[in-house]
Each structure stands twice: as structure tokens, then as C-alpha cells.
Amino acid sequence: MGVIIDGQRLSATLLMNATVLLPIFLIFLIIQTIKQIKARHIFKLILLILLSVYLYLLISVTLFPVHIFPRGDAVYQNGFGQQAWVTNFDVTQLLTYLPKQILGNLIMLAPLTFLSAAINPKFANLLRSLGLGFAVSLTIELLQLVMSYFYLGNRICDINDLLLNTLGAMLGYCAFAVCQKILIKAKVIEQ
Q: DSSP for 81-132?
């Protein structure tokens, strides 16, 4: 893996993967486990564990590996921001996407809005779920842009990903709403 500058692929000497984040997620899970067990909210604890695992996987897929180049490496000779293909603001390129790219971007944020709505009633609202999905997708795309600019990654900031991720967030909320209606009708939960 590496970056492409002026048609030349430059390889990073070190790739940092998402395992560096595991201590943060584990501390969060320990704290939540203690809080939810004390409050006797076992179902909420299970949802929080699922959300934590999902967020870890989301971050590891979208922002990692991080490229680490040594100081004075050839990658820095032309300054920052010289990497090829840093942005894509052409919506028409969506027509050239492979079905797996479209499907992957559609389902990427669906678990986020589904689990967020199930955990917190504040997100059991279409507009808030859409806002959450849009904000998370925009954050990911902007981080990918910054990382590419500083040669920390080789991702592309893509407007099409933002659109598909937000649509996927809406699908996640819709799946939550359908499940909620089924559980209410079956009298498993109250309205």
C-alpha cells in the first residue's frame, strides 16, 4: 500500500491498523456494562455492545490503515496534497459504480441508524436519523480527504459515497421503524 504522486507509487514504511483503537472501545464497553447492569438494562447493553463492535468495524474499514512515512521521505519532496485522485465531486460517476460498490455504500450506515434508534428514542425519528447518517458520512469523507492530503491514507473524498451512505442511513431507520411496528403489534414492546 502507498500513495501515488506524479504516477509513482510510494510505499509507507509503516501501516497502522485499527487495533490501536481497541483500548478505547474496551474502556467504553466496560463502563457501559457496569452502568447498564446496575440499571438492569441488559437489552440496552446488548445493543450498545453491537453498536460498539459496528463502530469499530466502520472506522477500521473507512479510515485505516494509516500510512506512516519517515521524516524526510521522498513522499514529502513536493509538499502535501500532491496525491492523485484525492476528491470526486462528479455525481455522474455514480453510474459507473459496480453493484457491490453501491450495495456496500448503501448498507454501510444502515446499522448505525437502526441501532441508534433502538438505543436512544431521540434517534427514532427519520430526520434525526438522516442527520446522523449524513453527519457521520460527511465526517468520514472529510477525514479521508485530510488523510489523503497529508499522505496518511489513499482514500478518495467522494460525493457519491456521501449520497449513498445517507440513503443507507434512511434504509436503516426504515428497518427500525418496521421492526418496531411488528414488535408493537405482537405486543412484545409497548408504544
A: S-BS--EE--GGGGGG--HHHHHHHHHHSHHHHHHHHHH-GGG-SHHHHHHH
Residue with cell 489523503: 148
Sign, Cα dihedral of 128, 134, 135, 140: positive
Q: Within 10 Å of residue 111's Cβ, how many Cβ atoms?
A: 20
Asked whether 169 and 110 are in contact (CB, 8 A), the reply is yes
Report yes or no on whether pTM surpasses 0.90.
Answer: yes
For 11-40, the pLDDT digits (tens) are 898 999 999 999 999 999 999 999 999 999
Question: What does the pLDDT look like over 123-167, one tens digit per residue?
Answer: 999 999 999 999 999 999 999 999 999 999 989 999 999 999 999
Say if CB 159 and CB 165 are below 8 A apart: no
| pLDDT at site 148 | 93
Give the three-class secondary structure for 186. Answer: coil
Residues 6+ apart with CB under 8 A from 87: 145, 156, 157, 158
Burial (CB count within 10 angstroms: exposed 0-12, middle 13-18, buried 19+), residue 92 = exposed
Residue with cell 448503501: 106
